[in-house]
Amino acid sequence: MTSVGERQPSLRDRYRQTLGRFATGVTVITSRDAKGEPHGMTANAFMSVSLEPPLVAFAVQHGANLARVLSASDAFGVAVLGAGQEREARRFARIDVGAHGPLPEFDNIDGIPVLRHSLAWLTCQVEARQEAGDHTLVIGRVLDMSPGSPIELPLAFYQSTFAVLDPMPGHEVAPQLWSGGLDVWG
Known about the structure:
By secondary structure, this protein is mostly beta strands. It has a single domain (25-164), classed as Roll (Pnp Oxidase, Chain A), CATH 2.30.110. It has helices at residues 11-19, 65-71, 86-92, 175-178; strands spanning 24-25, 27-32, 38-43, 46-50, 55-61, 75-80, 106-109, 112-115, 120-132, 135-146, 155-158, 161-164. The two termini are 32 Å apart.
């Protein structure tokens, strides 16, 4: 509650504050433009959609450089970032761009650029695009993937801050419970 004369935060501010409590992983989505040059963006709005067929999705803001590149491309790569890749996350989010040294390296996997040295990666073919508010949801069919190193910890994003996600030993969820989703109580 706010007192008389006190300014209440805007809906946008409350939305960001509230959803900032949802910890997410950090990815870099990449694609090639018409000239074959790689482009990328940091995304925490990324998710698994389907196991059969294997589908993933992410959201790209209208007007973003990658939105323009993807409008003419049918393929993209996803790099799941590890704890040591905050610099790459900041570079592709355009945060302090000049402070990040040389351009990162990309692997070329069947013509799709994927950020090198990531925790895990996927290459995808665009399956569908859906306008949603000020973003476009891009759904991709997974073509190839690699889980990377199980030793490195993942980079996470929580309350507008980068963090490291450290699994809690002894709290694993049995595959038969999560294979259909964690909605086993509903």
